Structure formats: structure tokens, C-alpha cells
Amino acid sequence: MRTRVTEILGTEYPILQGGMAWVAEHHLAAAVSEAGGLGILAAANSTGETVRREIHLLRERTDRPFGVNIMLLSRYAGEVAQVAAEERVPVVTTGAGNPEPYMKLWKEAGVKVIPVVASVALARRMERCGADAVVAEGCEAGGHIGELTTMALLPQVADAVKIPVIGAGGVGDGRGMAAMFLLGAEGVQVGTRFVTADEAVVHENYKNRIVEAKDIDSVVIGRSHGHPIRMLRNPNTREYLRREQEGASFEELETLTLGALRRAVQEGDVRTGSVMAGQIAGLLHRRQPCREIIRELVEETEALLKNPPCIQF
Ligand code: TUI
């Protein structure tokens, strides 16, 4: 399965693992890279030195290509950007902002840069400033999201830029991956399905909450202050949404989410923690190793694209 994305990444398959905060650490990233995808370390709110240690631990586990995702709202984004350049990581992806200020630094270090975008305007801008590809992520995704759905965003981004586009948001199996290709993508980024992977160092309660989730179990909090975040419904999201409707300030609302993702991922507190996951959680019912996830995605996609179902011309 070769596309311009496999050429850029140097991977066997055009499949990237999402850079999920607290979840995407070196065990998961190494397993994905070893299975032929692009494993990605999430810098999230970590310091530069913490990310450097993770890069070294990852390099002990795999000599295949990998990426580092830089969350641009982090106060450490600048130092992490510097570490990514110093370590000459093969690929950087970015989220939740515009990475233009760091572009020159990364390109001079030979790093491939793949910003995550949620609009055509940012995709165009990223192409102009030298991005190698973009991830077009729709609001089916978990975590920090934009406004447009994957179905609407992806073909518009694909028409607007010449660099390869990677589809994200709602990809859970081969049907989703095949759909991304038909909408103009040359690769996919998969998040939620990898949270449930055997190699993901994530509390059992978190994984179980995802595999037990129904289609309508995710909600979006934080719309009122311009940083919408999708997560699975629980007593904490109910309280957040109630206070948000009452017009609570950002500072007040923040008390409900500070440390909440770590609490859910590491301590398994899925009642008062933040269980970030995409809308596709409802599709996932099994826990599997990364190798199996990638093999299934690839085989299903290939079969569907070679022989589309239920249609005769
Ligand atoms: O980044 C994500 N997803 C995330 S990051 C995260 S951790 C977090 N911590 C504290 C506060 C908020 C988040 C959890 N999930 N996905 C990539 C993504 N980027 N989705 C949407 C965007 C995006 C949205 C607007 C990128 C750029 C943008 O506009 C930038 C601009 O300046 O135009």
C-alpha cells in the first residue's frame, strides 16, 4: 500500500497513530512503528527534557520512523520544538494551533512537518510555509477539535492543496480508512482505536469505557471559551456542561479539567477524569495488539477498494 504519504514517512503503511496526550508514550509509539505504521509520541504538556527522554526510550525500542506531536497550546511548545530539531526526529506533527514560527527550525534540521489542520485556510497556509503534508482532522475526533466534520473538511482540503492530505477523525476500521482515500486522502491518522491496543499503557477502566461506549456516548465541552474538547460522557462532563450553560468563567471551568486526563488514563478514574475519545468509540468492541489493528485496517481497506460492496453499474 504505497502513497506519497508512505514515501514521506518511510513507513510500510500510510497509517499514523494520533498524538494523544498521556496515551501516546514510547511503548505505544514503538509498537505502531514496529507494525509498519508511524508511531507518534505526544508531547502534550510535557517539558522539552521529558520529551527528549521519551524519544531516547522510543529509539531503544525501534529503529523505524516515528513522529513527535507538539501541542501548540502548551507553555513548553517552544522548548519541545527545539528538542525535536536537536534530536532530528523523522516527523513532527502539530495540534491545536499554527506551527509557522517553528517551521524554519524543523526544515533546517531535516524534519518532515505534518501539521494537523481543521480548516482549509490553515491547510493552505501550511503548504505555503513548507509543510510536507497536512492531517485534516474532523470533529468526530477525540480531544481538542475544530468545527467541521471529516466528511466535509477532507475533500475541501484535498482540493485546496497540492501536498498530500491525511484524513483523521472517525477512522476506526477499514471502511473508515477506505472512505478517507475516496475523499482525497493519501493516508489516515487513527487515535481512539490505538488507545484500546494491548501495548497502550492506559488504565483498564479507560480501555473498557471505550470498548463499551455507545455511538452517542461522547460530548463536547469547552465550546464557550473557544477550545472545544470531545470526551466520553460521565459525571464530570455533566457538571462541566451544566456550569458552562450557566455562564461560568474559563478559570472556574478549568478546575474541573485540570489533571483530569491523567487521572483517567493512569488512575482509571473514568467518573471524574476526562476520558478523551472520538465518536468512533461506539464501533470498537475488542482489544488487540497494534500489529493486528494495522493488519486488519490494511486488509479491509484493500478489499473494499478493490471490490466495493452492494453496488452494480
Ligand atoms: O490537538 C489535537 N487534539 C488534542 S490536543 C489535546 S491536549 C489539550 N490540552 C489542553 C487544552 C487543550 C488540549 C487533546 N486533544 N488535535 C489536532 C487539532 N488541531 N484539532 C484541531 C486543531 C486545530 C484547531 C484550530 C488546529 C489549528 C487551529 O487553528 C489555529 C490557527 O491559529 O488558525
Structure overview:
- The chain is 42% helix and 15% strand.
- By secondary structure, it is an alpha/beta fold.
- The mean pLDDT is 97.
- Helix 2 (26-34) runs parallel beside helix 3 and helix 8 (174-182) crosses helix 14.
- The relative contact order is 0.13.
- The protein has 14 helices and eleven strands.
- Helix 8 links the parallel strand 8 (165-168) and strand 9 (187-190).
- The chain is globular and about 50 Å long.
- The longest helix is centred in the last third of the chain and has 17 residues, at 290-306.
- It binds ligand TUI.
- Ligand TUI binds next to strand 5 and strand 7.
Layout of SSEs?
Blueprint: H1 4-9, E1 15-17, H2 26-34, E2 39-42, H3 48-61, E3 66-71, H4 77-86, E4 91-95, H5 103-108, E5 112-117, H6 120-128, E6 134-137, E7 143-144, H7 150-160, E8 165-168, H8 174-182, E9 187-190, H9 192-195, H10 204-212, E10 218-221, E11 229-232, H11 235-245, H12 250-257, H13 260-267, H14 290-306
Helix pairs in contact: 2-3, 3-4, 8-14
The structure holds ligand TUI.
Question: Which residues form runs of ≥5 with pLDDT under 50?
Answer: none
Strands in their spatial order, largest beta sheet: 1-9-8-6-5-4-3-2
Bound molecules: ligand TUI
What is the tally of helical segments?
A: 14
State the helicity in percent bands.
40-55%
User: Which value, in Å, is the CA radius of gyration?
Assistant: 18 Å
End-to-end distance: 26 Å
State mean pLDDT (0 to 100 scale). Answer: 97
The main pleated sheet reads as: 8 strands, parallel
What is the general shape? globular
Order of helices and strands, N to C?
Answer: HEHEHEHEHEHEEHEHEHHEEHHHH
The count of β-strands is 11
What structural class results from the helix and strand content? alpha/beta
Note the beta-strand portion: 5-15%
